[in-house]
Amino acid sequence: MGGRRLRRVVFDEARLAARVSQIGREISEHYPAGEKLLVLGLLKGSFIFLADLVRRIHLPLQVDFLVASSYGDRVTSSGTVDFLYDPDVQVTDRHVIVVEDIVDSGTTLKELLPRLERRRPKSLEVCVLLHKRLIQLDPEPRWVGFEAPGEFLVGYGLDHAEDFRHLPFIGSL
Ligand code: IMP
Ligand code: MG
Protein backbone atom coordinates (compact mmCIF):
# COMPACT_ATOMS: atom_id res chain seq x y z
CA MET A 1 0.00 0.00 0.00
CA GLY A 2 1.18 3.50 -0.79
CA GLY A 3 0.82 4.75 2.76
CA ARG A 4 -1.83 7.34 1.96
CA ARG A 5 -4.61 7.61 4.52
CA LEU A 6 -8.23 8.50 4.10
CA ARG A 7 -9.12 11.93 5.38
CA ARG A 8 -12.90 11.69 5.39
CA VAL A 9 -15.91 10.01 3.82
CA VAL A 10 -17.27 12.30 1.13
CA PHE A 11 -20.17 10.22 -0.29
CA ASP A 12 -21.35 7.28 1.78
CA GLU A 13 -22.89 4.08 0.44
CA ALA A 14 -26.50 5.13 0.93
CA ARG A 15 -25.99 8.42 -0.88
CA LEU A 16 -24.25 6.70 -3.79
CA ALA A 17 -26.97 4.06 -4.08
CA ALA A 18 -29.77 6.64 -4.02
CA ARG A 19 -28.16 8.80 -6.70
CA VAL A 20 -27.29 5.85 -8.92
CA SER A 21 -30.93 4.65 -8.78
CA GLN A 22 -32.11 8.12 -9.71
CA ILE A 23 -29.77 8.34 -12.70
CA GLY A 24 -30.82 4.85 -13.78
CA ARG A 25 -34.43 6.01 -13.78
CA GLU A 26 -33.59 9.15 -15.75
CA ILE A 27 -31.68 7.17 -18.36
CA SER A 28 -34.52 4.66 -18.62
CA GLU A 29 -36.95 7.51 -19.32
CA HIS A 30 -34.66 9.36 -21.73
CA TYR A 31 -34.68 6.79 -24.53
CA PRO A 32 -37.73 5.71 -26.53
CA ALA A 33 -38.99 2.25 -25.59
CA GLY A 34 -37.50 -0.49 -27.69
CA GLU A 35 -34.20 1.29 -28.35
CA LYS A 36 -31.09 -0.67 -27.55
CA LEU A 37 -28.31 1.00 -25.63
CA LEU A 38 -24.60 0.46 -25.59
CA VAL A 39 -23.19 1.38 -22.21
CA LEU A 40 -19.50 2.02 -22.71
CA GLY A 41 -17.49 2.14 -19.50
CA LEU A 42 -14.08 3.76 -19.22
CA LEU A 43 -11.82 1.43 -17.29
CA LYS A 44 -10.85 1.08 -14.71
CA GLY A 45 -12.43 3.83 -12.64
CA SER A 46 -16.02 3.34 -13.79
CA PHE A 47 -16.32 -0.37 -13.09
CA ILE A 48 -18.29 -0.24 -9.84
CA PHE A 49 -20.45 2.73 -10.84
CA LEU A 50 -21.26 1.04 -14.14
CA ALA A 51 -22.09 -2.28 -12.49
CA ASP A 52 -24.54 -0.59 -10.13
CA LEU A 53 -25.94 1.73 -12.79
CA VAL A 54 -26.80 -0.84 -15.46
CA ARG A 55 -28.85 -2.76 -12.89
CA ARG A 56 -30.99 0.37 -12.52
CA ILE A 57 -31.60 0.89 -16.24
CA HIS A 58 -34.79 -0.77 -17.41
CA LEU A 59 -34.06 -0.89 -21.12
CA PRO A 60 -32.39 -3.51 -23.28
CA LEU A 61 -28.69 -2.76 -23.30
CA GLN A 62 -25.26 -4.11 -23.92
CA VAL A 63 -22.09 -3.34 -21.99
CA ASP A 64 -18.58 -2.81 -23.26
CA PHE A 65 -15.44 -1.10 -22.05
CA LEU A 66 -12.63 1.15 -23.21
CA VAL A 67 -9.32 1.55 -21.45
CA ALA A 68 -7.86 5.04 -21.08
CA SER A 69 -4.44 5.81 -19.69
CA SER A 70 -4.31 6.51 -15.97
CA TYR A 71 -2.62 8.94 -13.64
CA GLY A 72 -0.10 6.38 -12.44
CA ASP A 73 1.07 7.32 -8.97
CA ARG A 74 0.49 11.02 -9.38
CA VAL A 75 -2.48 12.98 -8.14
CA THR A 76 -2.48 15.51 -10.97
CA SER A 77 -3.52 15.02 -14.59
CA SER A 78 -0.79 14.45 -17.16
CA GLY A 79 -2.67 16.23 -19.93
CA THR A 80 -2.29 13.45 -22.48
CA VAL A 81 -4.50 10.44 -22.92
CA ASP A 82 -3.77 7.13 -24.55
CA PHE A 83 -6.61 4.83 -25.43
CA LEU A 84 -6.24 1.12 -25.65
CA TYR A 85 -9.27 1.15 -27.83
CA ASP A 86 -11.17 -1.99 -28.59
CA PRO A 87 -11.85 -1.83 -32.33
CA ASP A 88 -14.51 -4.52 -32.01
CA VAL A 89 -16.91 -2.26 -30.14
CA GLN A 90 -19.58 -1.46 -32.68
CA VAL A 91 -20.75 2.10 -32.19
CA THR A 92 -22.35 2.89 -35.54
CA ASP A 93 -26.15 3.31 -35.35
CA ARG A 94 -26.31 2.56 -31.66
CA HIS A 95 -27.35 4.78 -28.76
CA VAL A 96 -24.12 5.06 -26.82
CA ILE A 97 -23.70 6.17 -23.20
CA VAL A 98 -20.11 6.68 -22.10
CA VAL A 99 -19.76 6.06 -18.38
CA GLU A 100 -16.84 7.74 -16.60
CA ASP A 101 -15.94 7.96 -12.94
CA ILE A 102 -14.86 11.60 -12.68
CA VAL A 103 -14.24 14.66 -14.82
CA ASP A 104 -11.10 16.40 -13.64
CA SER A 105 -9.17 18.22 -16.38
CA GLY A 106 -11.69 16.91 -18.92
CA THR A 107 -8.88 15.68 -21.16
CA THR A 108 -10.14 12.11 -21.32
CA LEU A 109 -13.58 13.02 -22.58
CA LYS A 110 -12.31 15.78 -24.88
CA GLU A 111 -10.14 13.22 -26.62
CA LEU A 112 -12.58 10.36 -26.60
CA LEU A 113 -15.87 11.92 -27.67
CA PRO A 114 -14.77 13.18 -31.12
CA ARG A 115 -13.31 9.76 -31.82
CA LEU A 116 -16.60 8.10 -31.00
CA GLU A 117 -18.61 10.71 -32.94
CA ARG A 118 -16.63 9.88 -36.06
CA ARG A 119 -18.00 6.36 -35.83
CA ARG A 120 -21.53 7.71 -36.24
CA PRO A 121 -23.45 6.51 -33.22
CA LYS A 122 -27.22 7.03 -33.32
CA SER A 123 -26.72 9.20 -30.24
CA LEU A 124 -23.85 9.82 -27.85
CA GLU A 125 -24.28 10.86 -24.22
CA VAL A 126 -21.99 10.93 -21.22
CA CYS A 127 -22.81 9.85 -17.69
CA VAL A 128 -20.24 10.72 -15.01
CA LEU A 129 -20.42 9.98 -11.34
CA LEU A 130 -18.38 13.02 -10.28
CA HIS A 131 -17.58 16.37 -11.85
CA LYS A 132 -14.97 18.72 -10.40
CA ARG A 133 -16.20 21.65 -12.57
CA LEU A 134 -12.65 22.78 -13.20
CA ILE A 135 -13.42 23.12 -16.88
CA GLN A 136 -16.47 23.32 -19.08
CA LEU A 137 -17.05 20.51 -21.52
CA ASP A 138 -18.90 21.00 -24.77
CA PRO A 139 -21.32 19.37 -24.47
CA GLU A 140 -21.48 18.81 -20.72
CA PRO A 141 -22.31 15.27 -19.62
CA ARG A 142 -26.08 14.76 -19.66
CA TRP A 143 -25.97 12.89 -16.37
CA VAL A 144 -23.74 13.92 -13.44
CA GLY A 145 -23.93 12.10 -10.12
CA PHE A 146 -22.38 14.67 -7.83
CA GLU A 147 -20.36 17.86 -7.86
CA ALA A 148 -16.94 16.80 -6.57
CA PRO A 149 -15.03 18.81 -3.99
CA GLY A 150 -11.51 19.89 -4.91
CA GLU A 151 -9.86 16.96 -3.18
CA PHE A 152 -8.38 13.74 -4.49
CA LEU A 153 -11.14 11.17 -4.22
CA VAL A 154 -10.87 7.39 -3.91
CA GLY A 155 -13.20 4.44 -3.54
CA TYR A 156 -16.22 3.10 -5.45
CA GLY A 157 -13.87 2.41 -8.37
CA LEU A 158 -11.58 5.43 -8.03
CA ASP A 159 -7.99 4.74 -7.11
CA HIS A 160 -4.79 6.26 -5.95
CA ALA A 161 -1.91 4.25 -7.45
CA GLU A 162 -4.39 1.33 -7.81
CA ASP A 163 -5.28 1.32 -4.12
CA PHE A 164 -8.70 2.01 -2.60
CA ARG A 165 -10.85 1.04 -5.62
CA HIS A 166 -12.77 -1.51 -3.59
CA LEU A 167 -14.09 0.87 -0.93
CA PRO A 168 -17.91 0.88 -1.00
CA PHE A 169 -17.96 4.64 -0.34
CA ILE A 170 -16.03 7.64 -1.74
CA GLY A 171 -13.48 9.29 0.50
CA SER A 172 -10.71 11.86 0.15
CA LEU A 173 -7.00 11.44 0.74
P1 IMP B 1 -9.41 14.02 -16.74
O1 IMP B 1 -9.08 13.47 -18.07
O2 IMP B 1 -8.37 14.95 -16.19
O3 IMP B 1 -10.81 14.60 -16.65
O4 IMP B 1 -9.33 12.84 -15.68
C1 IMP B 1 -10.01 11.71 -15.87
C2 IMP B 1 -9.44 10.56 -15.07
O5 IMP B 1 -8.51 10.94 -14.06
C3 IMP B 1 -10.57 9.93 -14.33
O6 IMP B 1 -11.21 8.98 -15.13
C4 IMP B 1 -9.89 9.30 -13.15
O7 IMP B 1 -9.44 8.01 -13.47
C5 IMP B 1 -8.71 10.20 -12.89
N1 IMP B 1 -9.00 11.12 -11.77
C6 IMP B 1 -9.21 12.44 -11.83
N2 IMP B 1 -9.45 12.97 -10.62
C7 IMP B 1 -9.39 11.93 -9.75
C8 IMP B 1 -9.59 11.82 -8.33
O8 IMP B 1 -9.89 12.79 -7.57
N3 IMP B 1 -9.45 10.57 -7.81
C9 IMP B 1 -9.15 9.48 -8.58
N4 IMP B 1 -8.99 9.54 -9.90
C10 IMP B 1 -9.10 10.76 -10.49
MG1 MG C 1 -10.51 6.82 -15.06
Overview of the structural elements:
This protein is α/β, with parallel strands linked by helices. The protein has a domain of 120 residues: Rossmann fold (3-Layer(aba) Sandwich), CATH 3.40.50. It is built from three helices and nine strands, in the order E-H-E-H-E-E-E-H-E-E-E-E. Helix 1 packs across helix 2. The relative contact order is 0.22. About 3% of the residues have low confidence. The structure holds inosinic acid (IMP) and magnesium ion (MG).
| Total number of beta strands | 9
The CATH first-level class of one domain comes to: Alpha Beta
Bound molecules: inosinic acid, magnesium ion
What's the CATH architecture of one domain? Answer: 3-Layer(aba) Sandwich
Given helix and strand content, the structural type is alpha/beta
**Backbone shape:** globular
Average pLDDT reading: 90
Poorly predicted runs of 5 or more residues: 71-75
Largest sheet: 6 strands, mixed
Distance between the termini: 13 Å
The ordered string of helix (H) and strand (E) elements is EHEHEEEHEEEE
Proportion of residues in β-strands: 25-35%
* Helical segment count: 3
Strands side by side in the biggest sheet: 4-3-2-5-6-7
| CATH T-level fold name of one domain | Rossmann fold
What is the CA-based Rg, rounded? 16 Å
Helix content: 10-25%
Question: Would you summarize the structure shown here?
Answer:
The protein has helices spanning 13-30, 47-54, 107-117, and strands spanning 8-11, 37-43, 61-68, 83-84, 95-103, 123-131, 143-147, 153-154, 170-172. The chain has 173 residues and is α/β, with parallel strands linked by helices.
